[in-house]
Amino acid sequence: MTQINEQELQNLRHLIGAHETENQKMLTYAQQCTDPQVKAYFQKSAQDALNTKQQLMSFLK
Asked: Highest taxon of the source (predicted)?
């Protein structure tokens, strides 16, 4: 595996944190929704953010 430099590591940390924040916000919004379609949209958005976070974290291995 190719080594990443300090700047790339900082960028990854920033992106991972942003996707974690997005995941948490979308989960909160989904919990507050009463409309099933809107709730499903937020749940999917939360899952997408989590998937992206996990994919980004794989670069740290």
From this structure: Bacteria
Encode pLDDT of 17-61 as tens digits: 999 999 999 999 999 999 999 999 999 999 999 999 999 999 888
Residue 33, domain member (yes or no): yes
Contact 49, 23 (CB under 8 A): yes
Residue 11 lies in a domain: no
Q: How many domains does the chain have?
A: 1
Q: Which two tokens stand for residue 32?
A: 């507050």
Distance separating alpha carbons of residues 44 and 24, to the nearest angstrom: 12
